[in-house]
Design a protein that fits this description.
It is a single chain. This protein is mostly beta strands. The chain has strands at 16-20, 23-27, 32-37, 43-48, 51-52, 61-62, 69-70, 73-75, 78-84, 88-95, 100-107, 116-122, 141-144, 148-151, 154-157, 163-164, 170-175, 178-183, 199-200, 203-205, 209-216, 229-239, 271-273, 286-290, 295-299, 305-307, 317-321. The protein has 2 domains: 16-261, Distorted Sandwich (Beta-galactosidase, Chain A, domain 5); 265-321, Carboxypeptidase-like, regulatory domain (Immunoglobulin-like). Strands 7, 8, 9, 10, 11, 17, 18 and 22 form an 8-stranded antiparallel sheet that branches. Strands 1-2-3-4-5 form a 5-stranded antiparallel sheet, with no helix packed on it.
């Protein structure tokens, strides 16, 4: 006799987008499922390995929300979601098998809030571990305005989480079995403002665990005006805890049809040797290039040699900065 047995196969995650009401539900097939409200451009859910990383009382978004209209398209192993207003387009990109949300922000005018930032408002219960200096939960009093607080006899503030741009390519928060990191790879700061030593808010831990990418702000800004164009790319990367590398390939952006994107093949480089600094400080020399559209920088090696990142075509002011 022939016995037929039904064996239930395990369900495999399917890379794609499901539309439900106003929501685009994006499955990366890599452990992350995130939801974008197509009527606002807000991220309303981020499920990583079953853990809800998104705070459920507030959303994650550019500025304080931009009221954008979103669409989506699948391009090979990528899903592109542009969220569009009259002066700003926020791009969300899902990569097959990658538990991250790749992003870029194209602007033709400054947001009405007067600064350009992406803020991930995360679930503080799931991701309780951030920088102590910017953890303001349980504060007993306010020292200055609404930004500096007293916690357990210490002054703490979101401003204390800042790091100079040249050293700030990865920052994030963690919890049990989960890490959420903002990664600014390669030339991700090229349309930001302030230069290599400018620093801005990375985190605030309170009712929500907030992780930021500040592209420009009036927080002791050193540039006379803000740059428009394409900011980033950057990625909100999820891991099981460990910090990811900032050394990631950006070549896939070449094929996504993103406004303002300039591929490496259309860029150039500057190399040279910095002189004049005492030999003991030669490796502390930073060379920067800037104009109204972009900014770049590179550290010199111990002999003073420097090599720029891939730069957009243009005329730049070159500045050598050293510590003596």
């Amino acid at each position: 006799s022939l016995i037929l047995t039904n064996l239930a196969a395990p369900a495999l995650a399917a890379f794609g987008v499901t539309e439900s009401g106003n929501n685009f539900i994006v499955d990366t097939a890599g452990g992350l499922v995130f939801t974008v409200d197509k009527t606002t451009g807000d991220i309303t859910s981020m499920l990583f390995n079953g853990i809800q990383a998104q705070d459920q009382s507030k959303h994650s978004h550019i500025a304080s929300g931009i009221g954008a209209t979103c669409t989506w398209t699948k391009i090979g192993n990528y899903i592109k979601i542009p969220c569009v207003t009259s002066t700003l387009t926020q791009y969300y990109v899902a990569q097959y098998k990658n538990p991250g949300i790749h992003m870029a922000t194209y602007t033709t005018a400054e947001p009405s809030v007067g600064e350009l930032r992406f803020i991930a408002r995360l679930n503080a219960a799931a991701l309780p571990n951030g920088p102590t200096a910017s953890s303001v939960a349980g504060s007993s009093s306010t020292v200055e305005g609404s930004d500096v607080f007293v916690v357990s006899g210490q002054t703490r503030s979101k401003f204390y989480s800042s790091r100079q741009f040249i050293d700030d390519q990865v920052h994030g928060v963690t919890g049990s079995g989960i890490g959420a990191y903002m990664v600014i790879p390669g030339t991700g700061y090229e349309a930001s403002s302030g230069g290599p030593f400018f620093r801005d808010i990375d985190n605030q831990g309170g009712g929500q665990q907030e992780v930021y990418f500040y592209m420009n702000s009036g927080h002791t800004q050193t540039d006379a005006s803000y740059r428009m164009g394409l900011h980033g790319p950057y990625v909100l990367q999820f891991t099981t805890g460990a910090a990811p590398s900032a050394d990631i390939s950006l070549a896939f952006w070449d094929g996504l049809g993103v406004t303002g994107w300039v591929p490496t093949s259309s860029r150039g480089y500057v190399k040279g040797k910095a002189s004049g600094a005492p030999s003991a400080f030669a490796s502390l020399v930073v060379v920067g290039w800037s104009n109204s559209e972009a900014q770049y920088w590179a550290r010199a090696d111990s002999s003073g040699n420097f090599y720029s990142p891939a730069m957009k075509a243009g005329t730049y002011t070159q500045t050598s900065m050293s510590r003596t």
